[in-house]
Amino acid sequence: MEEAQHQTVNQAANTSLSSQSSLYVGDLNVSITEHELYELFSRVGHVVSVRVNRNQATNSAYAYVNYTCPEFAQEAHSSLNYTMLHGKQMRIMNVDPDPTQRKSGAANIYVKNLDPLVDNKILHDTFSAYGQILSCRVATNDAGESKGHGYVQFEQEEAASKAIQEANGLLLLEKEIFVGPFMKREERELAASPSKFNNVYVKSFSDATTDADLYRIFGDFGSITSAVVMRDTNGNSKGFGFVNFENADDAVRAVENLNGKFIDGKEWYVGRAQKKSERQLELRERFELNHRDRTEKQKNVNVYVKNLDANVDERVLKDFFSSIGHVVSTKIIRLPDGQSKGIGFVQYSSPDDARKAISEMNGVKLGSKPLFVARAQRKEDRQVKDGIVNGPRINPHHMFHPGAMFGQQYFYGQPLPSIMPHQANGFGYQQPMMPAIGPGGVPVPNYFMPSPPLRAGFQGPRFGKRGMGAGPHPNFVHQQVAPGNSNQSSRYSQIPRYTSEVASSRASEASASMGGPSDNVRTPSTATNVEQQRMILGEQLYPLVDKLEHERAGKVTGMLLELGEAEVVRLINSPEALKARVNEALDVLRLAKSGSVPPSAELSSLSIDESSKR
C-alpha cells in the first residue's frame, strides 16, 4: 500500500516537473516552422521537442516547446516573450496541466479604450506592477491592427482585484482606459438587460445631419458622452449614427420620445444599439418564423405537376388548371438555358381546389402527354419519405459489419461458385468483385457483385490516353491469386474461358437465385431476360455516372445497378438522387482504400480497392 502511494507521489512530481519544462507559444504567424522555433529557443538551453499547430481557416498558429529542465523554460519565458517573429509578437505562457483556473476567468481582467499603439508588451509592462501575470493579449483583426481592447490574466485573484480598483481610468498613451472583470460572452448576454442601455442607434435622418445636430437633439434628454454620424471613405453620410448617454434612463427616454418623429422631413428610427451578433440572431429568428408561417399557409394549396410538354409555359399551365378553381400562380422549372425540365407547380387560393385538381387532373393529357399531379412537398418532407420507403442510405461509418459483407472474398477475375462466372469487361476495364448494395444502400450479406456484362458488340466508353481500348474487349484468360496467408508464396491458376453469352446466362441464374427483381417491377420492353434488362440500364446509367466520377465510373455503375431496376430508373431520371448515390458509393470505396474494412474469415487484408489493383 505504501509502495503504491509512493509511486503515485512520484508520478505527480514527474508530471509537475514536466509541465514546468514546457512552454506554450501563441500568436504565431501561420508561416512559422518548427525548425525556426527550435533555432530560436535553443539559444536559451537544450530543447527536447517543438510542435507547431496551424489553423489555416483563421490564419493563426501556436506551438509547444519542451526543455530538458524548468530553469531553461523560465529563462526563455523571461527573455523571449513578445519577441517579433515574422511580423507578429509571440506570446509565451507556462503550460498548466490543470486548466481549471485559466478557464474559470477568476483572475482575468478586461481592458478597453486602448490606444492603437498599445501592444502585448506595453500592456504587460503596465499591469505587471499589480502582480504576477500568466497571460496578456491585445485583441487584433486579420491585418494585425489593435481592436482597442485586451485581456490580462493574473496568477492571483487579489492582483486582478487590485488592478481593477487602481488602473480603471488610468491614462495610457494619452487615453483613459477602462478596466473591469472579464466576463464570458454568455454571461455578458445574460447580464445585459434590453431595458437598460446607454448606447442609442439612430437612422433614416437626412444627409445634412451632423454630429453637432445629434448632440443638440439628443442633449435635451440628458448628458451625452459621444455622438457620431457614420460616414464612408469620401466623407458622405451613411444615414445612421450612434449616441451614447451617460445615464441609461436618459437613453430610454430619448428612444421613447424620438423614435418615429419627423425631423427635417425624415422619419427617424431611434432604438437600442445592438451588437452585430444580436441583430443577426433577431433577423434569423424573424426569417424562420415568417418562413414557417408561409410554409404552413401554402402547405395544402400547392400542386406538383410533371411530365409536361417542352412547349408548355406558365400561361398555358395556369389556363389549364384554372378550370378547377382560382390559380394564384404557376411556375415551370427550367434548365439554365431556359429549356423546360417538364416539371411545374400550381398554387391555388384554397386547399379544396388543390385537392380537386389532384383527383381530377392526374392522368389528363396536356398536349401530347398525360400529366402526373400530386400534392407539392417540401424537400425535407420528401427526404423523410424517401428514407422510410427506400430504407436508410449508406452510412460510410457503419457500412462494414463483421461477418455481414465479407463471408467469403474473391480476388478480381475469380468467379463466384455457382453464382457468377468471370465476365467480359463491361465498362472498358477489368472490374473487381464489389460488395452488392441492396435497396437503400443496404449491403447484401456475403455477396460480391462485379459490374454487369454488356451485350455483344457494345464498345463501351472510349478512354483514349488512359490506355484502354475503344473497341469490344476479347475474353482474355485472366489469372487469379490463390486465397491463402499473405506470407505464403503466390500461386496462379488458369480460369476457364467464358463468352458473353455464357456470362449472361449464368448471371440470369444468379439473379434468380438471389431473388432477382420483383414481379411488380416493369422491365424495359426490349429486354427478354433479367440480364438484358441490366445491360440496357447499365448503358443508360454509365454516361451519367461518368460525368460525375470519370475515374471510377465503371466500378460505381456496377454498384448502383445492384439497387434494383426501380431505383436505377429513378436515378437516371433524377440528377440530384444520382449525385447522392454516387457520393455514397465513393465513400464506401474510400473507406475500403483506407483499410477500414474489418477482418473476415479469409483474406482479411484484402480491401475492395486493393482487389481492383490485382
TrEMBL record:
It comes from the Eukaryota. Keywords: Cytoplasm, Nucleus, Repeat, RNA-binding. It is found in: Cytoplasm; Nucleus. Residues 517-594 form the PABC domain. Residues 482-497 have a biased composition (Polar residues). GO terms for cellular component: cytoplasm; nucleus. CDD domains: RRM2_I_PABPs, RRM3_I_PABPs. The keyword Cytoplasm applies. GO terms for molecular function: RNA binding. Residues 500-513 have a biased composition (Low complexity). Residues 469-525 are annotated as: Disordered. Residues 21-97, 107-184, 198-275, 301-378 form the RRM domain. Binds the poly(A) tail of mRNA. Appears to be an important mediator of the multiple roles of the poly(A) tail in mRNA biogenesis, stability and translation. PANTHER family: RNA BINDING PROTEIN. Belongs to the polyadenylate-binding protein type-1 family. This is Polyadenylate-binding protein. It comes from Ceratopteris richardii (Triangle waterfern).
